[in-house]
Amino acid sequence: MDTFNNLLSERNWLVHKSRASSRNGVHSDAAKRKLVLRLNTIAKESFALLREIGVLTERYVKERGVSEQYINETANQPWKSGSR
Question: Is 80 helix (H, G, I), strand (E, B) or coil?
Fold first, then answer.
């Protein structure tokens, strides 16, 4: 849960504060490197969290009797916009 909360905090910074707090990134190589490092960290943590959600989701449905074959078949079906 700490990882999620940290990522949420970084997401909130990115959406609400990054523009104002990162203006030096345009003028300073050090500030630009710091900004890029922070953005790369957010991206890596987001991807890791997405993978973990996938693992937990698969475990959850398997524990409720859904077969791995059905999961794979369903996952490989084309996704249609607007369908649920």
Answer: coil
What is the 8-class DSSP label of residue 77?
S
Q: Exposed, middle or buried by CB within 10 Å (0-12, 13-18, 19+), for 82?
A: exposed
Whole-angstrom Cα distance, residue 17 to residue 11?
10
Cα 6 to the chain's mean position, in Å? 12
Q: What is the rounded CA–CA span in Å between residue 18 and residue 72?
A: 39
SS3 state of residue 9? helix
Mean per-residue pLDDT, 27-48: 91
Domain boundaries, the chain: 1-53
Estimate to the nearest angstrom the gap between the alpha carbon of 23 and the chain centroid: 25
Predicted TM-score of the model (pTM)? 0.72
Q: How much is the average pLDDT of 36-54?
A: 93
Angle at 11 between CA 2 and CA 78, to 5 degrees: 95
Question: What residue type is assigned to position 54 of the chain?
Answer: G
